[in-house]
Write a structure and sequence with these properties.
Length: 325
């Protein structure tokens, strides 16, 4: 005989910083809740480049009023991982790691959440799934080759190799500079006429490397085809073929739109795919289903960050409880 699924007041889907913030707010309000995370704790942060430094200061990355002390004003990836781990364990937050929510369906007055391991019932749902798990593809021939990655981790891997970095923003800048410093021959391909949003302490460094010719930059250019030992690029001067060992495509990431649609959350009918939600309560077009964090921005993944979306947690729990957190 099948056992009745566990019942919660709130299930939080996503165990990143904002999902954890929602858990802290739920605990403070005395709610019975559970956090589900498809990967490791703060899975997205774990997959950031090893040497990454945040734009924000540590106090802007704090959640639940818990101090974040770092060695410098702007913390790095390792410090952030340690901070959020300590927050979760010291507060004994109930979080199931490596358990992915696969399906959500209406059930009585709430919802049934089915994961890769079991099912749960909940009156309220909070979707805090971020956007870092699904890269924006270029849709070019050869993108599926093993030499192509949409995630950059460690520059040592590319030492002595011919590397093509695609993108104009911070991730591309870091990949280009770090791999070049490890001895890679780097070409940077940028769709527009100039560099994009890059950390103020990184941008001059990259500009100097480009100006001196250490890193070759192709502006107003796009990749046409990726081959085993070369890449075809469309430039204002015509097509160019360059020798290549690896491609690091920093083309951005997107929320899991199929999952949102499968739940029944409405998306805008333009290319931005903004999910429907009330900006005051964070409640979607579905009763008792809420969005929190960067998932709220649709394809505009630059709108929401930890520092300006951590307040979503209190808004949601206040709506659920009907009283300020």
């Amino acid at each position: 005989m099948e056992t009745q699924p566990e019942k919660y007041d709130v299930i939080i889907i996503g165990g990143g910083p904002i999902g954890i913030a929602c858990g802290l707010a739920a605990k403070k309000s005395g709610l019975n809740y559970l956090i589900l995370e498809k990967g490791c704790l703060t899975n997205s942060l774990y997959n950031y480049p090893l040497n990454m430094t945040f734009f924000s200061t540590s106090e802007k990355l704090e959640i639940g009023g818990i101090p974040f002390v770092s060695n410098s004003a702007k913390p790095n990836r390792a410090e952030a991982l340690e901070y959020y781990r300590r927050v979760v364990f010291s507060n004994e937050l109930p979080i199931h790691l490596f358990e992915e929510a696969k399906k959500v369906a209406s059930f009585d007055e709430g919802y049934k959440v089915t994961t890769n391991k079991k099912s749960y019932l909940s009156t309220h749902l909070i979707i805090a799934t971020g956007f870092y798990d699904i890269p924006v593809m270029m849709d070019v021939v050869g993108e599926e080759l093993p030499k192509v990655t949409h995630y950059y981790k460690d520059p040592h891997f590319y030492a002595g190799q011919k590397v093509l970095v695609i993108g104009a923003n911070n991730s591309a800048a870091d990949a280009a500079l770090e791999t070049w410093r490890k001895g890679a021959e780097v070409t940077l391909v940028i769709r527009g006429p100039e560099l994009g949003r890059i950390k103020y302490w990184t941008k001059p460094d990259l500009e100097n490397r480009i100006n001196e010719g250490s890193i070759k930059a192709l502006f107003n250019s796009t990749v046409k085809e990726i081959r085993e030992k070369e890449v075809a690029i469309l430039t204002p001067e015509g097509a160019k073929i360059i020798e290549n060992d690896f491609v690091i495509a920093m083309t951005g990431y997107q929320p899991n739109f199929p999952f949102l649609k499968s739940i029944g959350i409405n998306l805008s009918d333009d290319e931005k795919l903004y999910p429907a939600y009330d900006k005051e309560t964070m409640e979607t077009n579905l009763k008792n289903v809420y969005l929190a964090g960067v998932v709220c921005g649709g394809m505009d993944t630059h709108i929401w960050f930890i520092e300006n979306s951590r307040e979503h947690a209190d808004r949601i729990i206040e709506k659920i409880k009907g009283v300020p957190v």
